[in-house]
Amino acid sequence: MKLKDADVKDLTDLFEEALNRAQRIDKQQKIQFRKKIRNELFSLMAWELATPSGIISRWEERLSDVLAVLPFSFKDEVTRVLMDKLHVAPLNKKIKRGGQYA
After folding, report:
1. What residues form DSSP beta bridges with 101?
2. What is the pLDDT of residue 93?
3. Nearest Cα residue to 46 out of 11, 5, 87
């Protein structure tokens, strides 16, 4: 499923809040990080079949320096938001009980 403009705006706000909470970076680094984040988010709008896992793995490669300074729980938070935006159900393990899956 493709991300919409409003979804990208929500993700931008989420990254901005996380950058504001980050304490180990100076103003100049924040400016550079915002540019990298903006470029990555706008490139997502071109993805036709975006998945949360694909987006997160791309960000782990391309935004590793940004993710390193953001709060620890940020990656989990952004994954949940992406799952909601892309309407993907969380992966649940099916447990076989008595010959049937529960």
Report:
1. 96
2. 47
3. 5
Q: What is the pLDDT of residue 55?
A: 93
Q: CB neighbours (10 Å) of residue 3?
A: 19
- pTM listed for this prediction: 0.78
In whole angstroms, give the CA distance from residue 76 to residue 90: 12
Calpha distance 12→30 (Å, rounded):
13
The structure tokens listed for 90 are 């969380």
- pLDDT averaged over consecutive 10-residue blocks of the chain (102 residues)? 86 94 90 96 86 92 94 91 81 53 50
In whole angstroms, give the CA distance from residue 25 to residue 19.
9
Q: Which two tokens stand for residue 64?
A: 């590793």
Please classify residue 86 by burial: count the beta carbons closer than 10 Å to its beta carbon, then call 0-12 exposed, 13-18 middle and 19+ buried.
middle
Q: Any idea where the domains of the chain sit in the sequence? A: 5-89
Per 3-state DSSP, the chain is made up of helix, strand and coil in percentages (nearest 5) of: 65, 5, 35
